[in-house]
Amino acid sequence: MEDLVIMYHYVMEPEEWKGSVPISPSDFRKQVEWAKEHYEIIKPEDIHKQTQKPKCIISFDDATKDQYTNAFRILKELNVPGYFTIMSGPLIERKVPIFHLVHTVLSHFKEEQIWEEVFQQVNVTEIKNKSDIYSYEMNEYRRYVKYLFNFYWSEEQSRPYLERKVTSIYHTLENFIEEFYLSEREILEMDASGMSIGVHSVNHLPYERNPQGFYDKEIRGCKNYLEKLLNKDVKLYTPSFGGGEQSIQMQVELLPILIENGFILGFTTEKGFTDMRNGFWHKRIDCNQLILNGVV
Ligand SMILES: [Zn+2]
Question: Which residues form the NodB homology domain (predicted)?
Fold first, then answer.
């Protein structure tokens, strides 16, 4: 059997979070118990350690608050480590990426209501056709809304509407950031409790074909921030969107720059098992995929 890296995002009750597909805390616990039985759950820093069983890393993207309140609590109870990756933009620049604003708006408002508020400002036929990329979404208005904010409108067009909706719930964007993301105190506590902390991004942008420019814009700032906060080297990297549409080029072009800057491991969104003894980049399997395959 090969090694496994499981990818998690939100660990929350599906009724409490309608913005995307979360895993409930009880299913999360079952998966970690399953992994603990069949694998040796390790920190990424320990990939070369000799183990009886194949190795497993429990990885988290985006550093949302539920990862502290739910996932970290359960990992501590089960006495296993997790690997959490931070997006520094919201913490330093107090700027929330568009896709998180979209998740939040979709979690608090009906899709149809949002569509009602915006459809007169857009080319409805174009959006209806192009929103097919979200064909996995059962609700048609959800497809339209996601396509509109994530692709059809520029960030400058989407942001004011989305921030207005979010602040109508959380009062201020500051409040939202405090409630939605891990705080510095929480990151420090998780690190001190044996969790691994890595870089996810600054502002959660996909890779573009300029490796040094991308490193300077999306990686360096987060690494420096974490190293100052934790007072130690940060050597782990999980690219946002797995790199995006250019993920294969990213793995090749960015690698020498990452190594030059002290990174030792990277985790992609390519699906599959991996061999932790070899290579820099490792594939992962999404937690919802494990559920579909009947693991828990
Ligand atoms: Zn992410």
Answer: 49-248
Q: Are the C-beta atoms of 266 and 280 separated by less than 8 Å?
A: yes
**Four-CA torsion 92, 176, 284, 246, nearest 10 degrees:** -60
Q: By three-state DSSP, how is residue 61 classified?
A: coil
Structure tokens at 62: 């985006």
Q: Which of 176, 200, 228 is the last residue of a domain?
A: 176
Q: pLDDT digits over 232-274, tens only?
A: 999 999 999 887 888 999 999 999 999 999 999 999 999 999 9
Q: What separation in Å is there between the alpha carbon of 125 and the centre of ligand 1?
A: 30
In sequence order, what E strands does 71-174 have?
83-87
CA of 50 to the centre of ligand 1 (A): 31
For the chain, list the strands marked E by DSSP: 4-8, 40-41, 55-60, 83-87, 196-201, 236-237, 265-271, 281-286
CATH number reported for the structural domain that contains residue 240 in this entry: 3.20.20.370
* Domain range enclosing 124: 98-176
Band of the pLDDT at 104, cuts 50, 70, 90?
A: very high
- For the segment 40-62, the average pLDDT, to the nearest whole number, is 96
- Which pLDDT score is estimated for 133? 87
Q: 204 CA to middle of ligand 1, Å?
A: 6
pLDDT interval class at 1 (50, 70, 90)? low
Average pLDDT value over all residues in the chain = 95
Distance CA 60, CA 196 (A): 10
CA angle 125, 128, 133 (to 5 degrees): 140
